[in-house]
Hints:
It comes from Streptomyces iconiensis. The protein is an alpha/beta fold. It has two domains: 2-212, Rossmann fold (3-Layer(aba) Sandwich); 220-274, no CATH class. It is built from seven helices and twelve strands. The chain has helices spanning 18-21, 28-48, 134-144, 156-165, 188-208, 230-236, 258-274, and strands at 2-7, 53-58, 75-78, 97-103, 122-127, 130-131, 149-155, 170-179, 182-185, 220-227, 242-246, 249-255. The strands form two sheets. Strands 3-2-1-4-7-8-9 form a seven-stranded mixed beta sheet, sandwiched between helices. Strands 6-5-10-12-11 form a five-stranded antiparallel beta sheet, covered by helices on one side. Strand 11 and strand 12 form a beta hairpin. The longest helix is centred in the first third of the chain and has 21 residues, at 28-48. The protein starts with a strand and ends in a 6-residue tail after the last helix.
Amino acid sequence: MRVYVSADMEGVTGLVGAEDVQMGGRDYERGRAMMTEDVNAAVSGALQGGAAEVLVNDTHSTMRNLLVDQLHPRVALVRGKPKPMGMVQDLDADFDAMVCVGYHSRAGTLGVLSHNFMGHEIEDMWLDERPMGEIGFAHATATALGVPVVALFGDDAACEEMRAWDDTVLTAPVKYARDRFAARLRPAAEAREAITQTTADAVRRTEARTAQRPAPDTTPHTLAVRWQSASVAQQLAGIPGVTRHDDRTVTTNAPLPALFRLFGVFMSVAYALTGQAPYC
């Protein structure tokens, strides 16, 4: 059994502020260690649940956050950027399950470090008119490939968002949001035990239900993104197949995962035009 772990940072145990998760922040190095420990907890759970192979994708910011020499020795790692498929790089139909570690809720929610991919630059996103953030987009892309998302870990807002998107996914909160930069933290050992046990349960359950994997989806879907900057929307409208719905909102149609790949191009254009740090 092959398990894919997509690892973000904002939803990691103990982390609540920009300086915990941004390179150069005073607590970033400690944040890297905490992220590595959460990922190792998930890997241990996957192996206990019957996984023969685990691939981890470091998906946060520079995508060079995990401490390679401290990762579980059974792990293969996708590291660095640019990655054409970002948070789901190297995920394909040969994987039996996907686990999300350190995920956060979408922009506009009262979750710890909530945002959509680019901090304040992306105000809202929709997939087929359904409000969406990183959780929904990653889930939809994996499902389109025929890979079930089986577990997610982050704060309580992220877990709630995942359950609303797909209530079959097992979740365990590692902290409870009190504001966008504040949380009540679970003890680290307790949080990581929850990650391990929940992942093990999810993988075991998936192995027993291999006949119920989602069917690959090749139908077109509609992505809409509302940007803070009208300049971004105007430039993106120059991409074939992209339409400017209003001054700040663009829409496009394509099958997944091609739609996820195209959104990566959207972000490259936005970064080039704005160059602003997130969490302002």
